[in-house]
Amino acid sequence: MRALPIADDVAGGIFALNGGDLGEDTGCVYYFAPDTLNWESLEVGYSEFLQWALSGDLDTFYENVRWQQWREDVIKLSATEAFTFYPFLWVQSEEARTRKVISLTELWEMQYQMKETFTQ
């Protein structure tokens, strides 16, 4: 895929610069959203993304995946870990979500497998 990963988050999301395979807006930042399993354009370039990541409204962006003690839990993660949620974020559910620590690689592989399953 022609895209350059530039960041990830603890919910399994991936931020990437579009190299042409994600849409016609080459050079824009896209987000692989763990709640939709789709690449979504943020409609900003790299500089604007950095500004947003350092001083933007992250509370609103992550409002569906944060919990009361998220700061205390996130600080315990290594750079190669993330949280997986159950029911999965891409499943609409009124049930309270539980979470556990998982390797980023394992989480990404699971998400891509589920995406492939849903798009077949």
From TrEMBL:
<dbReference type="Pfam" id="PF10946">
    <property type="entry name" value="DUF2625"/>
</dbReference>
<dbReference type="InterPro" id="IPR021239">
    <property type="entry name" value="DUF2625"/>
</dbReference>
<protein>
    <recommendedName>
        <fullName>DUF2625 domain-containing protein</fullName>
    </recommendedName>
</protein>
